[in-house]
Amino acid sequence: MARKTAGKSTKKKGKAKRKFKPLAWAGFILLRACTVLIVVVLALVILFRFVNPPVTATIFSEWRRLGSVEREWVRIEDIAAVAPRSVVAAEDANFCLHWGFDVKAIRAAIDAGAKRGASTLSQQVTKNVFLWQGRSWIRKALETAITPAVEAFWPKKRILEVYLNVAEMDEGVFGIQAAAQSYFGVDADQLTAVQSARIAAVLPNPKGRSAANPSQRLRRKAAAIMDGAATIRADGRSGCFED
Questions:
Q1: Domain contains 216
Q2: Which residue blocks in the chain are alpha helix, DSSP H?
Q3: In this structure, is residue 31 part of a structural domain?
Q4: I need a surface site. Which of 96, 141, 156, 161 has the fewest CB within 10 A?
């Protein structure tokens, strides 16, 4: 009888050791959720290397707000060559030289007291396609984590092609094709250097600027972008997206 009692006592102690622990269970759930999130994001990154993103959070948000949006996907080969160069010159002149983050630009932004932006086109594509607009540390952390994956799985030409098709270029107007038609009544493959530079000049503030009716300030900015586009073509910094 003594042996049986001892056996029962041992079993009770084992059950006590395996009692429910809320913190451990929460940690397990969090780990599983993070693992699933990473797998889903990587799957989407790989998928969108070959399949055009059907919609983004920003496009959906503007569609709900405005009732409709203008958007038409176009291959980068069907865009006037000067347009991608202009966008790169305006937004990320070292696009072909970095791995997703422009360290020099980041340092310059810090030195300027964060009064200037330092996001590369790769970061902007990550934000536009996989995340949401607005400033928050959570979004920035996710952007920083996902951008290297985009750089690893997408060639630079694909990154730029996606950017040119999902970026907002006027209120409710997304992509270079819709912008070319909305502003100038032409297709993306017919854009001139001046028109391309003006579209690129509105990108930081598409709701507050107009490529069709540019202010003097925007005209000066567009002229600088035209010079920049010519420069990156001459020095080879457009080589990663031009055949």
A1: yes
A2: 2-17, 22-50, 57-66, 82-91, 103-111, 121-130, 137-153, 156-166, 176-184, 193-202, 216-234
A3: no
A4: 141
What confidence tens digit (pLDDT) does each residue in 154-176 have?
Answer: 999 999 999 999 999 999 999 99
Does the pLDDT value for residue 2 go beyond 50? no
Query: What is the separation of C-alpha 206 from the centre of its chain, rounded to a whole number of angstroms?
Result: 16
- Output the domain CATH number for residue 170: 1.10.3810.10
Residue 170 is inside which H or E element, if any? strand 168-170
Q: What domain range is 79 assigned to? A: 54-234
Q: Which amino acid is at 42?
A: L
Quickly list DSSP for 25-77: HHHHHHHHHHHHHHHHHHHHHHHHHHS--S--HHHHHHHHHHS--EE----GG
- So what's the pLDDT on residue 29? 77
Instruction: Please check whether residue 41 is in contact with residue 126, taking contact to mean a CB–CB distance below 8 angstroms.
Output: no
186, 180 contact by CB (below 8 A): yes
Q: Are 146 and 46 in contact (CB under 8 A)?
A: no
Is 174 strand, coil or helix?
strand
Residues 6 or more apart whose CB falls under 8 angstroms from that of 118 comprise 102, 105, 106, 108, 109
**Cβ count near 239 (within 10 Å):** 12
Lowest mean pLDDT, pick from 22-26, 116-120, 149-153, 163-167: 22-26
Number of structural domains the chain divides into = 1
Neighbours of 1 (CB within 10 A): 5
